[in-house]
Design a protein that fits this description.
alpha/beta, Rossmann fold, 3 domains, 16 helices, 38% helix
Length: 375
Amino acid sequence: MKYLDEFNDPKLARRLLDEIRATVTRPWALMEVCGGQTHSIIRHGIDQLLPEEVELIHGPGCPVCVTPLECIDKALEIAARPDVIFCSFGDMLRVPGTDRDLFRVKGAGGDVRVVYSPLDALQLARRHPGKQVVFFAIGFETTAPANAMAVHQAKRLGLANFTLLVSHVRVPPAIEAIMTAPACRVQGFLAAGHVCSVMGMAEYPGLAERHRVPVVVTGFEPLDILEGIRRTVGQLERGEHRVENAYARAVRADGNPAAIRMIEEVFEITDRNWRGIGRIPGSGWRLSEAYRAFDAEHRFDVTGIRTEEPAECRAGEVLQGLIKPTDCAAFGTSCTPRTPLGATMVSSEGACAAYYLYRRMSEPALPREEMNPVG
């Protein structure tokens, strides 16, 4: 397929791998921020093809995975109410709460529906004026504009039966939290291209300068990722720590100004809990005062729900890049896609799901030089 196959070219992949091998002289640990990048890395075996000096650490780049357990429990409480139509993207339905998930709520009679856009939920609110329609608004900066637009339209249309349960998180504060953690060993970042296509790159130079780490904005295809790694390793070897855009076909320095204006109108920055990680200051959005009437937490009075994470699940350590999924004793045994302990095994972008899906149960037996790049 044009514009897709060309970013999976094995010859170009080998050339990039050769350049990385020729450049690297010492060990470096890089973190890819996005779960979509993690899945691409594991699917194509990119981490196994790199020279042994280059280690890839999987970061907290899956919005489903970092949605805190207490927020899932709030969703379950709201979805079980007989007057509610609860709408969500499909990958949230099997994320475990304390004692159930949204599929079980649906099986018990709750009106839980999978939608493909928050505007689908808005249309349901228009068609069912006697029901309260709630959309589970999770995600990083990528999904925020559409969710903001849905609330903006609801206010314009006077839809009093539409609300959002908001669990939006922001990438730059998460990077800040990772870099200031005592156990941090990340030396460079592959930034999420889709986030930067919305927000631009303005928040990253300060991070790069404060922590003296290169930040390279990277796409999701194998050649995108290898080019991002090549540039990051090159900076590290030269002692540089700049922000580079290796995804210029999709990302502009100022992002999408119209989307940013919509976000700033509807949301305001707040502290946010991240599942398995804890509270990160300024790392989330909530509805601003002008749109607070559309906040499901307040309308359904679930703000007081507080939940402890299960001790057996080590997803928080995976999300912080402290361990690989295979380092968890529950991985592939008591924790599988059928019996998940945490969201990282359920989400289509979760690191544990990637390792399980692509049968990465242990390190490969073949030497790296005998493996074929990119399929």
